[in-house]
Amino acid sequence: MNLTARIAGAVTAAAALVIAGLITASPASSAQLTEVTGFGANPTGLRMHLYVPDGVPARPAVLVAVHYCTRSGPAFHSGTEFASLADRHKFVVIYPSATRSGSCFDVSSPQALRHDGGSDPAGIVSMVRYVQQRHGGDPDRTYVTGASSGGMMTNVLIGAYPDVFRAGASFMGVPFGCFATTDGSSWNSACANGQVSRTPQQWGDAVRAAYPGYNGPRPRMQIWHGTEDGTLRYPNFQEQIKQWTDVHGLSQTPSLTDRPRANWTRTRYGGTGTTPPVEAVSIQGVGHNLPQSGMAAAVIDFFGLSDGGDPTASPTVTPDPPGTCRVAYTMNNWNAGFTAVVTITNTGASPIGSWALTFTLPPGQSVTSAWNATVSPAAGQVTATNAPYNGTIAPGASASFGFQATHGGDTAEPGSFALNGAACTTA
What we know:
Blueprint: H1 3-20, E1 33-36, E2 47-51, E3 62-66, H2 73-79, H3 82-89, E4 92-97, H4 119-134, E5 142-147, H5 149-160, E6 167-171, H6 189-192, H7 200-210, E7 220-226, H8 235-247, E8 256-258, E9 264-269, E10 278-283, H9 295-303, E11 325-333, E12 337-346, E13 356-360, E14 366-371, E15 373-376, E16 381-386, E17 398-406, E18 418-419, E19 422-423, E20 425-426
Parallel strand pairs: 3-4, 3-5, 5-6, 6-7, 7-10, 11-20
Antiparallel strand pairs: 1-2, 2-4, 8-9, 9-10, 11-12, 12-17, 13-16, 13-18, 14-17, 15-16, 18-19
Helix pairs in contact: 7-8
């Protein structure tokens, strides 16, 4: 089954919500979005639109902004804040357009997942090289961001072309290689449903295999996901964290955890400033409709293209210390099934306003029902989200939920837990 049949309907419905929450007016300048043809090797016939603000410097930064399925580069230009931010901070924006049915990008073929392998990534890299040659774009300040299909493409470009991009920001994406197929299809149901769980090293090895022999610096990565995403499900958030922390040789324990907004939980890995090697932002209660207002500015900060992106600056919010949660997990087993009671204790100094607990069930275990929480998917890496009545956990207080499951003989307990993206201790 192709990507369009599965994702286009959900993304089209979400698109109206995305655009409604963003700045949609044309930037207040004389600069215009312009289509460019003949920009170089373009195996799949992508279209290229370019936005060059008034007054850019001789060596401007370059941002590639990649749209979601059913849309186009011009639609992503008018429906997101990146152009207005380019006017403010004087960088150039490239807007690629997919041309296949459904307007989704190829993030699954062997060609797309290999450095200089061809397909859509090769065309996008040609666009970058065109801007570097014709507009003096700075190779040391070249970045990529995207949503849904574009978020998946961001992971692909960062993984396969670490020599081209310095950082990426993926909205509602999946790890590099997660969508891989070899049968000519472009849809991977297991990945989309959050059922593909690998070790950090396995994910990291997939990236390293895309460009054998590359020993240069790896691009920094920012990851965004809503906990209620029903199209590319929330477990993909943690899998991306696993992948990019491993690529950078980092622990999955955050260096900093903070809450810039009430429903945002931000974790930073390998640094506490605004430009760490890896940053992840979990958005509680939000589905497949990112980015929303203000998120593009946070991307520009992470890239270091604004004053807020000064790597020497101190965080503007008070961080929670690592390990502000403790989880107790109690099982009651029988021949082919078990029940589990899970208790989350807030060991931090601030209330938790809502929660999503992520953990991985051993092979063969599958959830059949749950109480006091919603647990999804049924197997593999699952996420339990609070019920309407138990979302708030005061400092020192606890919330409990339970579920019933089947097993195939393995009655081991999950090895680790993460609350809103931050690792918990276990009781």
